[in-house]
Amino acid sequence: MSFLVSLIVISALIFFHELGHYFAARAMGVYVEVFSIGFGRKIASFKRWGT
User: Domain containing 34: what range?
Assistant: First the structure.
């Protein structure tokens, strides 16, 4: 059980870290083509604000 909790916590930390990169880029006026985590197949996606 602790392994699963650790995996969820690490995943959330990585997600919010990458989201910070996204918002920093948008704040500086950089066009962001794709927001993604990892290099695997696409599981889910959405398009918002021209990204």
Answer: 1-51
33 is catalytic: no
Task: Measure the CA–CA gap between 29 and 43, rounded to whole angstroms.
Answer: 28
Specify the number of domains making up the chain.
1
**Per-residue pLDDT for the chain (51 aa), expressed as one digit of tens each?**
899 999 999 989 988 998 899 899 999 999 888 777 776 677 777 777 775
Look at residues 13, 18, 11 and name the one whose alpha carbon lies nearest to residue 32: 18
Q: Which of 18, 25, 26, 35 is catalytic?
A: 18
